[in-house]
Amino acid sequence: MAELGLEDGTIWYETIGDGPPLVFVHGGWMNGGAWTPQVDHFADDYRVVTLDVRGHGNTGPTDPDRYSIELFTDDLEALLSHLEIEQPILCGLSLGSMIVQEFLSRHPTDATGAILGGAVRSMPPIELPTGLKSFWSPVPALTASLSLTGTTGTFQSMLYSIQATTGQRWLSVDPEVRADAIDDVGDIRSTEFRKIFQALYRYDPPELTDVRTPALVVHGEQEAPLVKRQGQRIATSVADGDRLVLSESGHLVNQDRPHAFNAATTDFLQDLSAV
Fold first, then answer.
1. Distances (CA, A) of 196 to 20, 163, 190
2. Which among 38, 82, 152, 234 could bridge 186 via Cys, Cβ 3.0 to 4.6 Å?
């Protein structure tokens, strides 16, 4: 991996292959390795870029006391500038989909295409007014859980809560994928876990109605219904959006169904190149 030094931290990233730039942004409490099935598949034909977002993976903790989706997007912009990438194809999963949405909102025509896996606009997926979010903040309970059970226990409690609400194994239908994701969470410090959670919780999503970048939203069939609804809203908000639901998969749709996800991505990329 390589380093990008910033004023308030260092971002770790990796590039492989040559061709049109294809940039992958992972989900919350994961790392760039979450995209391994896609990196392996596309590196022969694309310049594939992955990064570890602040607080995650090799990047780990950075100086700011607060994180935000806006800050993560600043970092993405800095990385693209550093690599001299213009008109990237962006692919974001979950938290990464928020970062891609923020980038598209800032740059409605400056990406060639966008793929949003496990796409979500806000957390919780019921969009609450900012003032109400602050009034009902789950951060104190989260902090207590982190002090008692650590990052792994807190994350598992979140998963159980979502499963109890939806009746579905929301994160992944594959036990190995689920276990690997939980292991990744265990590598994150409690202070960073809380900062990442707050970034997700505080985010006020853009409407995307000015976005002219073609976008594909991909959800797993076992995705939480409210998240699916948000994905539909994203796909219909942009000028050129489409949505796909893959069977036998959950939130980590790119890992649950890697071949199907790669095939859908390939079709989308071929449509882009034909324009």
1. 30, 21, 10
2. 152
pLDDT at 203 over 70: yes
Strand pairing of 21-25 and 89-93? parallel
- What is the average per-residue pLDDT within 63-69? 97
Handedness of CA 133, 206, 251, 186 (dihedral sign): negative
pTM here is: 0.96
Quote the CA–CA distance of 90 and 269 in Å, as a whole number.
Answer: 11
What confidence tens digit (pLDDT) does each residue in 124-155 have? 876 666 666 666 789 899 999 999 999 999 99
Gap between the Cα atoms of 98 and 106, Å rounded: 12
Cβ neighbours of 254 (radius 10 Å): 30
Residue 62's identity, in one-letter code, is T
CA distances (Å), 51 to each of 60, 75, 91, 195, in order? 11, 10, 12, 18
Tell how far CA 221 is from the center of its chain.
18
Give the E-state strand segments of 183-268 in sequence order: 215-220, 241-246
Q: Classify 171 as helix, strand or coil.
A: coil
Q: Which residues pair with 92 in a beta bridge?
A: 25, 116
Question: For the chain, how many structural domains are there in total?
Answer: 1
Q: ∠ CA 147-163-51 to the nearest 5 degrees?
A: 65
CA distance 263 to 266: 5
How confident is the model over 233-253, as a mean pLDDT? 97
218: left (phi over 0), alpha (psi -120 to 50) or beta: beta
Residues spanned by the domain of 270: 2-274
Which residue reads 């499963």 in tokens? Answer: 163
CATH number where 46 lies: 3.40.50.1820
